[in-house]
């Protein structure tokens, strides 16, 4: 390892943890050491990084001695239990779960949008929800130009958002459909293969789900826009990876489609794919494994006089989770 930071990944063997490892390597993150942490059942597993074989250690309260940055992607319960131990040991926690996102004193950061918030941490920096990240990556340059005041959105979320278990369930159900065998649903309440499930996160008192409320609540914090309103429907679709979001945004000032294309095309972390004559617009397969979010179907909205409608797709395992966390670590 070269001179740099002492880094630990908590949840290193999960889908996002593996992607974090890949992002650290691809971006040549300056490391003095790297510690891979996971549950007891993964202890001793070997993982390769920069041509070296690293051994996964069991995550314990004492795992963070000498660690500068701890990247957490092991669920909110693990973050709440072990995050404070990491902070007390002197590490800065970059947490990918929902555990601390809305807490006062915890910056909620998308590096292309609000990097200036990161230094205000008190030991923990939160990674936003993956769907929120994907949507705001498309909207931020437009927000700077015309100020977003409300969002109406529908998400089409891949099964990898549920982790490896979701991926395996869709694959197993696809095989069962082809073979004419019975469908077994364990991860999801109903069959996901050849189906769409319009509920992610559990319905709360107002009839929306917890996943749907994140775009409004987290969007307000990230954009420093306390009056932002968002009406969102989140749908799980039979796609393995990369989330898609249909977004209608209403602005304080009337936007221009051509200027919107120019602004999005000039923004960091997003690209325009909006070729009407060629019928070429972003799909999940276009984004999978890629850093940038892709934006298309940019058009004037027919309901809001000062609105724009667009379609944005992003790899939620990468930009929606692992890459965003590594970019936050880079800010540190």
List the keywords.
332 residues; alpha/beta; Rossmann fold; Dihydrodipicolinate Reductase, domain 2; 6-stranded parallel beta sheet; 6-stranded mixed beta sheet; 8 helices; 14 strands; 30% helix; 24% strand; globular
Structure, briefly:
With 332 residues, the chain is an alpha/beta fold.
CATH domain class name of the largest domain: Alpha Beta
Q: Write down the overall mean pLDDT.
A: 96
Tell me the strand percentage band: 15-25%
Task: Give the overall shape, derived from the CA principal axes.
Answer: globular
CATH superfamily of the largest domain: Dihydrodipicolinate Reductase, domain 2
Number of structural domains: 3
Q: Biggest sheet: strands, sense, closure? A: 6 strands, parallel
Helix content: 25-40%
- Secondary structure tally: strands: 14
Number of helices: 8
N-C termini distance? 18 Å
Spatial strand sequence of the major β-sheet: 5-2-1-6-7-8
CATH fold call of the largest domain: Dihydrodipicolinate Reductase, domain 2
């Amino acid at each position: 390892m070269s001179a740099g930071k002492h880094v630990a990944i908590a949840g290193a063997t999960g889908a996002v943890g593996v992607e974090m490892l890949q992002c650290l390597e691809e971006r040549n993150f300056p490391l003095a050491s790297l510690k891979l942490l996971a549950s007891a059942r993964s202890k001793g597993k070997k993982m390769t990084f920069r041509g070296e074989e690293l051994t996964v250690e069991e995550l314990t309260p004492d795992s963070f001695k000498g660690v500068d940055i701890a990247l957490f992607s092991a669920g909110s319960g693990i973050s709440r239990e072990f995050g404070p131990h990491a902070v007390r040991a002197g590490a800065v926690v970059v947490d990918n779960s929902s555990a601390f996102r809305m807490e006062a004193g915890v910056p909620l950061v998308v590096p292309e949008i609000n990097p200036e918030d990161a230094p205000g941490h008190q030991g923990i920096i939160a990674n936003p929800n993956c769907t929120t990240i994907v949507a705001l990556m498309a909207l931020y340059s437009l927000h700077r130009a015309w100020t977003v005041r409300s969002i109406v959105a529908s998400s089409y979320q891949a099964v990898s958002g549920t982790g490896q278990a979701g991926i395996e369930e869709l694959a197993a159900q696809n095989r069962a459909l082809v073979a004419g065998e019975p469908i077994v649903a364990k991860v999801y309440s109903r069959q996901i293969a050849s189906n769409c499930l319009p509920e992610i996160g559990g319905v709360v008192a107002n009839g929306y789900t917890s996943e749907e409320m994140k775009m409004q609540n987290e969007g307000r914090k990230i954009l420093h826009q306390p009056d932002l309103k968002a009406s969102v429907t989140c749908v799980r679709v039979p796609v393995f990876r990369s989330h898609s979001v249909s977004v209608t945004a209403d602005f304080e000032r009337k936007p221009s489609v051509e200027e919107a294309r120019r602004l999005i095309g000039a923004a960091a972390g997003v690209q325009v794919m909006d070729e009407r004559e060629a019928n070429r617009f972003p799909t999940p397969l276009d984004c999978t494994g890629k850093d940038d979010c892709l934006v298309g179907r940019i058009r004037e909205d027919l309901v809001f006089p000062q609105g724009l409608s667009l379609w944005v797709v992003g790899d939620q395992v990468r930009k929606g989770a692992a890459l965003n966390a590594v970019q936050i670590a880079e800010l540190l």
